[in-house]
Amino acid sequence: MRKKFDLQKKIFVVATGAVLTLALAACSGSSSSLDDVQYSLNDATAEPSVSFQTPFTTDETSTHVIEEGDGEEIKDGDNLLIEATVFKGDDGSKVGSTYAQSPILIPVGEDLKKTAPELYDVLTSSKVGTSFSYTSNMVPSADASGSPSASEAAEDTPANVEVYTIKSKLLENATGDETPQKDLNSALESFKVGDDGKAELKLKADRGDAPKELVSQDMIKGKGEKVKASDTLYVKYQGVRWEDGKAFDGNFDGTPAELNLQGVIKGWTQGLEGKTVGSRVLLIIPEDLAYGKDAGENAPSGPLVFVVDILGASDNPQAAASMQSPSASASGSASASPSASPAAESAEPTTSAQPTSTESGK
Fold it and tell me: Torsion angle of alpha carbons 173, 178, 181, 186, nearest 10°?
């Protein structure tokens, strides 16, 4: 089981109705303060370290700004990428960290404001690059219906010390140089996103035979960093079947999806590597690079067409190392959907397919 999965669950719980997990071993002692913790942030790509008197206990939820960032200001509605490291309150040992894989995606909105106001407040009063710590005397639980809730820990229960660094915030939309409609693949009739955030992707009725080769074409060419095959991407997308043009999946009206390029269908892996952050990409994917002839019950069959907005990307050192390993398999399985849940547990990536995309294909 990956340690990052544990960290993601902690943050995911915050955004859906509870607060961060605490250590539960009971010890006696007076209430501790985050101000008294000694922090060493090292650099932006390395795990922080801390030193504090144990056991660390608290009778409240609190935050402490360790170092203020000098990046973009953060506002309600932003989607943030945050690095996290959690330390046990009873002995100071590390519970887990995101630094070996990818940062956590946290939407800053009403859900977070209602369920974790202290976390919401520190985020919306900060800039990108800020590092802060968090602790709480609340522990997650579930109500009678199974919905997340929280309750106070017993007095003198050791509490985790959690250190977060706001790495970046995602773009709100694809932005860059637009490709004229006449230069786009001839199968595409139109694509638009309405005021309600819902996307509509239309194919021409006379679009011809099913595609035999992958088409990967910039509708908007972003000016951000280039995507690597081992990256984790943060995207909004709309997908339709080539056969009948019917939509089967999409999230333009929701939170960006977090996707490791080594855990999705081959058409995505090959078609998005080398693209730039900020781009809107048209993918026309033949059946053998989609879900194949034996697509599962919940997977669309046949060739597929996607429009993908690349709103952010992050390094995934574990995925990169796996691709370089001699034992990496070239036939790793893809996720059942391009929109794998950010909190879903997955095995280490094993696919090592190289990009063979066609840049145009009018």
Answer: -80
Q: List, in order, residues 6 or more apart from 208 with CB less than 8 Å away.
A: 186, 187
State both tokens at 132.
């802060």
Measure the CA–CA gap between 6 and 10, rounded to whole angstroms: 6
Domains in the chain, CATH or no CATH each: 34-170 (3.10.50.40), 176-321 (3.10.50.40)
CB 346 within 8 A of CB 308: no
Q: What is this structure's pTM? A: 0.81
Structure-token match 């090592």, residue found = 352
Q: What is the DSSP letter of 153?
A: P
Residues 92, 96, 100, 102, CA torsion sign: negative
Bond from prior residue into 55 cis (ω within 30 degrees of 0): yes
pLDDT in tens, 279-332: 999 999 999 999 988 777 788 999 999 999 999 999 988 888 887 765 444 334
Backbone angles phi, psi at 6, to 5 degrees: -60, -45
Structural Rg of the chain based on CA atoms: 22
For the chain, the straight-line distance linking the first and the last C-alpha, in angstroms and rounded, comes to: 45
Distance CA 202, CA 189 (A): 5
Question: What is the percentage of the chain residues whose pLDDT exceeds 90?
Answer: 67
3-class SS shares of the chain: helix, strand, coil, % to 5: 15, 30, 55
Distance CA 172, CA 300 (A): 28
Residue 296, burial from CB neighbour count under 10 angstroms (0-12, 13-18, 19+)? exposed
Question: 170 to each of 62, 197, 235, 257, 316, how far by Cα in Å?
Answer: 26, 17, 9, 11, 17
Tokens of 362: 């009018």
Cα–Cα distance for residue pair 152/57, rounded to 1 Å: 12
How many whole angstroms separate alpha carbon 166 and alpha carbon 129? 5
What whole-number percentage of the chain has pLDDT above 70?
77
What is the rounded distance in angstroms from the CA atom of residue 112 to the CA atom of residue 190?
36
* Rounded Cα–Cα distance for residues 28 and 6 (Å): 27
